[in-house]
What we know:
- The chain contains three helices and five strands.
- It is an alpha+beta fold.
- The protein has one domain (16-113).
- The chain has a five-stranded mixed beta sheet with strand order 1-3-2-4-5.
- β4 and β5 form a beta hairpin.
- The chain starts with 15 loop residues before the first strand and ends in a 10-residue tail after the last strand.
Amino acid sequence: MTDPDETASETAPASSTDFDAAATERSPDDSTDGDTFRVGIHVTETELRFVVNVPSDIDSGWTDPDAFQRLVERVTWEQLDQRATLQTVATNAAEGETVFLGTVTLRPDETVVDHTLRVPPLDGA
C-alpha cells in the first residue's frame, strides 16, 4: 500500500467468499479428508479484506457459510501472527492485489485436518 498512514489493523469487519473449484485438491476419500479452503488478504484503497476461496464441491455437512468462514479465519489467526501478517501485506502489496496465505483443510465437525499457512515472502518484507 502506498499510504503510510494505513495500518494492518484496518481489516474488513466480515469475510468475503469466492467459490473456486481450483481452490481445493481432493482425494478419493473426501469424507475423511475434509474440504480445503484457500485463504488470502485482499488489498483495497481503504482496507484489508480476509478472503476465503470455497471449493465448488464443498461437503454438504457445511450448513452455515458464515460459520465456516469464521472458523477458517479463526484457524488462520491461530497459526499466523495476525498483526505481523497484515502489516506485511499492507506495507508490501499493491491496491487490488490479493495475497494468498495458504490453505486450511477442515471437516464440517470443525476438525482441522491440515494447513499450509505462512506469512507471504513479499518484496521488502
